[in-house]
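Key idea: predict the complex, not the pieces.
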Amino acid sequence: MTSAADPASGAMAVTRGAIWFVEDDADDIALLGHACPRAGITDWRTFEHGPALQKHLEETPDTAIPALMVLDINLPMMDGFELLRWLRERHDADALPIAMLSTSRDERDMTKARQLGATAYFIKPNEFGALVSLLCQIASLRRAGLV
Amino acid sequence: MDTYSIDQLPCAAFAVSDSGYLAACNTALCDMVGVAAGELDGAPVTRLLTTASGIFYDTHVFPLLKLNGRVDEVYFNLRRADGTSRPVLVCATRLAAGDGGRSCFACMPFTEHEKYEATLHAARRASEAALAEGLALKDAQDALRAQALAYDRDLTRLDQRNAELAQVTRMLFHDLAEPLRKIRVFADMLADGIPAPDAPNRLRSAAAHMDSLLHTIELYVSIGRDALRIDAVAVEPLLREALERARRAHPDVRCEARFSAFPVIEADPFLLAHLFEQIFDNALKFHMAERSLLLSIEGTFMERNLLRSAPESYRYGDVLRVRISDNGRGFDPAHGAGLFKLAGKLDRDSDGAGCGLAICRKIVTLHFGTIDITARPDEGAQVTVELPLLHLAPPVPTASP
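Result:
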């Protein structure tokens, strides 16, 4: 169990469980590196695209799934929606919360994400402080009961 | 056996000596031409015939009788006493007898022939009119078909413009928004004094990315903005030059190419050269480092439905299929759906903005053709371009290497 300051409320937030991000963009990964510790997220990792995540899950079937997955939409080889569909065929929303994190403000993308079973949809913010706040919000979606 | 007089025959009959005089005429003949019995005996045969029939008798009928002994179904006009003529159908046989030959003629009245002829002429005129009408219908049908193709091409062009607009809009509002967001976030970090030593470089890189995207949009929009400059294009030399230009950009790649023979087609030579250079550039860029790049460039004629937009409509015509196969890195076909979109490249680390295949498709669609790409990972890719032969020029002989 780790804890960190919540920059939005100033209160201490208890965080637990791993978050896996599927993000191919080096700048966004660097931003996560700056923002995650400030949002109290210490157990996190990234996969650069869907097939890398699929390979990891298939090669290590006994690996516990994370407490939350965060998928970008605009990914190489298979987009975030295809990956979401693939994951939902294997894990329901109670077992694996999945949040979409994209620059797209398109209503159709949001609807499609909901229809495919995404737990939440977030738009990548334009300010660093907003990114840290958003990550706090995202962290709260983690599956309950994990320590 | 009983003997009967020629006057008992149910038709007009007469006999003519070889010297051209009437030797006998029956009653039916005299009645037919309106003279008294015996009045024609000993008269020249030409008195019985109109001038034209007389000439016909001298030049055709009599020589044939002498040659073959008989003549069947010839047509005479008998000269009547009242100055009119009477058409008859005649059969004749020649009897060789005594001091000279004689020919016997039997005449069947042929007065109904004008009615038959009139009927025949009417039928002929009707068939000619029907033919003309059929031709007019065919012309109208051809015009309609040409119009259908033109209409279909207008629709295809509109569909293409819509698709382009959607692509460019997506680039403006999504792809460009990405580097803009990063610039804002990293600038925000710098302004707030958050320690981020990588921020200046990331700012520069995001700005360069924006610049590259804007250049891509400009290039994509500019292709085909003006009308195509259609000209006769010798495809094989154009392919070879396009490969040479692409190879200059990848001097370290070992490459061997095999070309089949290609015809001359009508197309925009500048755009076609750009299309194939881009395809070769991709093949060279994504070669396997461990082996020489082998390129096979084949040309084949195919028959395809030229109507692209009208549902369930067919107008078959020839297309030139150009298939470019390589033994490069290929890709997993499951991930190839977005390749023809702007910024749809698979490998984000490769050079370029990922608009090459989008521009290829735009060029092919401007020619009302199709482009497709198939591949297998580590085995190679195959690009197939089909270009309709709108106005095929005579082929020129081409030599294979």
